[in-house]
């Protein structure tokens, strides 16, 4: 019995395309190596957030930050490896009042 009768065409075509993709990866998928460019993404640093989120991340015009708006309404600012994330602002006045009420003052 010929192989064409054993395997349906719909199963052979994706397998052949997958094999060609692996073989011709450098030609089809890999980005061009441009003169004068640098691969700086491999040197990027991951900064963990202490909360769920962020909803957005921004930098100020002077290059400070990053600032991260998180789910609970706070805006956090990255102050470097020594300080980490600090609370920069609140988007709700209730958040500040709740923090005062939760804190145990002597």
TrEMBL record:
Species of the source: Brassica cretica
Signal peptide (residue range): none
PANTHER family: STRICTOSIDINE SYNTHASE CONSERVED REGION DOMAIN-CONTAINING PROTEIN, STRICTOSIDINE SYNTHASE-RELATED
Keywords: Membrane, Transmembrane, Transmembrane helix
Pfam families: SSL_N
Xref: Gene3D superfamilies: TolB, C-terminal domain
Protein's name in the database: Strictosidine synthase conserved region domain-containing protein
Listed transmembrane segments: 7-28
Keyword Membrane recorded: yes
InterPro entries (alphabetical): 6-blade_b-propeller_TolB-like
Keyword hit for Membrane: yes
């Amino acid at each position: 019995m010929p192989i064409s009768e054993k395997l349906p065409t719909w199963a052979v075509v994706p397998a052949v395309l997958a094999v060609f993709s692996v073989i011709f990866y450098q030609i089809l998928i890999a980005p061009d190596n441009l003169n004068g460019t640098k691969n700086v993404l491999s040197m990027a640093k991951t900064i963990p957030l202490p909360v769920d989120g962020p909803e957005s991340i921004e930098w100020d015009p002077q290059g400070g930050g990053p600032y991260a708006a998180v789910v609970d309404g706070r805006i956090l600012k990255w102050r470097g490896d020594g300080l980490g994330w600090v609370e920069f602002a609140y988007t709700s006045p209730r958040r500040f009042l709740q923090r005062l009420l939760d804190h145990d003052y002597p």
